[in-house]
Amino acid sequence: MNQTADCSQAPNLWSIAEIERDTGLGKDTLRIWERRYGFPTPLRDARGDRLYDQPQLQRLLRIKQLLDSGHRPGKVVPLSLPVLEAMLQASCAPADQSDASADLDDWLNLLEQGQPAQLRAALQQQLQQLGLSQAIEQLLVPLGHRIGQAWLADRLSIHQEHLFSETLQSVLREAIANLDASNGSSRPPRVLLTTLPQEQHTLGLLMAECYFALARCERVALGPRLPPSEILSAVEHFQVDIVALSISLHASVREIADQLALLRQQLPAEVGLWVGGAWASANRRRLPKGVLPVVNDAQVNTGLARWRAARG
């Protein structure tokens, strides 16, 4: 039985029309799935109209991605969000993985055994062998997903996940410092790196900084969760050329799209707005006009080459 929602206490609710707009799934399809698969399970407002919360929106977005890649509704609609995300990650994984990332369970074993020094040394070794950008894309991104899955499956504890995150951040910051020391002086564009206020994940932001460091860009790294008003103030204060945001997959599609549209409108026309992270990869068609998706090193370099060429 559907519950009646108190909209005053739950502002992050979507009507069926908004769900159709944000996911591309038709209203009739959603109603059929309710009866056939028991999902989605909308709330009802005082008039009896359907309302969907953010977890259901996120789950429907993943389902739509899997349907677009050829899966049948009966095989994916009943699945939980972690299982859907695992399927998406598996479908996006490169067919030709390096030996370093072929067995991610070896890395989980290091965490389970409580060996932070060995973990740090192993990460540093892979960065040296693969190079920074390839290590990020071939090893660190899939490893991060694998660790998230292991945590959801209760294989890893919270403190073990935190150990990985803190160790990796330390290793990446050291790599950036070494790059800056060896590259000498940086050159334009000047890039401001941050996240929007609701973004909890910081590793993606640090990986993005690695890409810009490799390209010898001037960088203003302000950490995560910067309010849009502060972004605008920092752009003026530091004379920024590009604002680069990292957004994780769990962010609300509608909320982020609206914030990006407003930020793009408020930024000076000559200042670029670039967005990376899993959200940008999954929601390219929902990006407002004038917002550039850059989700890997190649796309960052392409964008930078065009920016530099346009300015001589």
Automatic annotation (TrEMBL):
PROSITE patterns: B12_BINDING, HTH_MERR_2. Coiled coil: none annotated. Keywords: DNA-binding, Repressor, Transcription, Transcription regulation. Pfam families: B12-binding (PF02310), B12-binding_2 (PF02607), MerR_1 (PF13411). Transmembrane segments: none annotated. It comes from Malikia spinosa. It comes from the Bacteria. GO terms for molecular function: cobalamin binding; DNA binding; DNA-binding transcription factor activity; metal ion binding. InterPro entries: Cbl-bd_cap, Cobalamin-bd, Cobalamin-bd_sf, DNA-bd_dom_put_sf, MerR-type_HTH_dom, MerR_fam, Meth_synthase_dom. This is Cobalamin-binding protein. Residues 13-70 form the HTH merR-type domain. Residues 188-312 form the B12-binding domain.
